[in-house]
Specification:
It is built from 7 helices and 4 strands. By secondary structure, it is α+β, with helices and mostly antiparallel strands. The protein folds into 2 domains: about 80 residues, Glutaredoxin, CATH 3.40.30.10; about 100 residues, Glutathione S-transferase Yfyf (Class Pi), Chain A, domain 2 (Up-down Bundle). Strands 2-1-3-4 form a 4-stranded mixed sheet, with helices on one face. Strand 3 and strand 4 form a beta hairpin. Helix 1 packs antiparallel against helix 6, helix 4 runs antiparallel to helix 5 and helix 4 runs parallel beside helix 6. The longest helix has about 30 residues. Bound molecules: glutathione (GSH).
Length: about 200
C-alpha cells in the first residue's frame, strides 16, 4: 500500500491526501512530528535528503516534492479526470502548478508560517510586509484568471489541488480574502468536487 509521510498541519501534505482521496486510492499515513524535528532524523534523511515532508512511498519507489507527487499519482492512476492528458491542458496545469510553487507558496505559506508558528518577537516584520505585498499580487493573478475560468486548467484538476491549500490557509497568515470574490467562489466549487476532503478530515 502507498505510504504518505505526513503532518496534519502541512498544506503540502494535504494536497497529496486530497488527490489520493479524489482518486479513491487507499494509503497509509505515517506521522512525522516536524515540530520535534523528526524530519531531520537519519531515517527521514534516507527517504528525503532535503529533510521535508511530504514523502511518498509506493513499494520500492520513494519520492518527495508535493507537486511532483501530484504528477506521479495523476499519471500512475491515469486515465482519470484529474490528470489532463491533452497536451494543452497538461501544459496549462503545469503552468499553474509551477506558479503555485514559485509565486503562491513562497509568499502565502511563509506568511502563514510567520503568523501561526512564530511568536511576535521572532517575526521579521519587514519580511512579512513584503510577503503580503507579493502574496496579494499572486492572489490578484489567480482571482483575475478565475473571473473567466471555473478552474485553473479547464476542468478541475491537479492544478487546482496543488494551488488550493495555501490559498485557503492564507487567512491564517493575515491575508484578507474578502475582496477576492472569484477565489472564494473557486473554494466552493472545489469543496463540491467528488471525494473532496478538508485539511482536518
Ligand atoms: N517544496 C516542498 C516543500 C516542502 C515543505 O516545505 N514541507 C514543510 C511542511 S509543509 C516541511 O517539511 N517543513 C519542515 C522544514 O522545512 O524544516 C514540497 O512542495 O514538497
Amino acid at each position: 500500500m502507498i505510504k504518505l509521510h505526513d503532518h496534519p498541519l502541512s498544506g503540502n501534505c494535504y494536497k497529496v491526501r486530497l488527490l489520493l482521496s479524489q482518486l479513491g486510492v487507499p494509503y497509509e499515513r505515517v506521522y512525522v512530528d516536524i515540530f520535534e524535528g523528526e524530519h531531520k532524523s537519519a531515517d527521514h534523511r534516507e527517504i528525503n535528503p532535503n529533510m521535508k515532508i511530504p514523502v511518498l512511498q509506493d513499494g520500492d519507489f520513494t519520492m518527495w516534492e508535493s507537486n511532483a507527487i501530484l504528477f506521479y499519482l495523476g499519471r500512475k492512476f491515469a486515465p482519470n479526470d484529474l490528470f489532463p492528458d491533452d497536451p494543452k491542458a497538461f501544459g496549462r496545469a503545469s503552468q499553474w502548478l509551477f506558479f503555485g510553487k514559485t509565486t503562491i507558496d513562497p509568499n502565502l505559506a511563509l506568511a502563514r508560517y510567520f503568523m501561526r508558528f512564530l511568536t511576535p518577537g521572532n517575526r521579521d516584520e519587514s519580511e512579512l510586509k513584503r510577503l503580503h505585498e507579493e502574496g496579494n499580487k499572486a492572489l490578484t493573478v489567480l482571482n483575475d484568471h478565475l473571473t473567466q475560468n471555473e478552474f485553473l486548467a479547464g476542468s478541475y484538476s491537479i492544478a487546482d489541488i496543488g494551488c488550493y491549500p495555501y490559498v485557503a490557509l492564507s487567512p491564517e497568515g493575515n491575508f484578507d480574502l474578502t475582496s477576492y470574490s472569484e477565489i472564494l467562489s473557486w473554494f466552493e466549487r472545489i469543496k463540491s468536487t467528488p471525494g473532496y476532503i478538508g485539511m482536518e478530515d
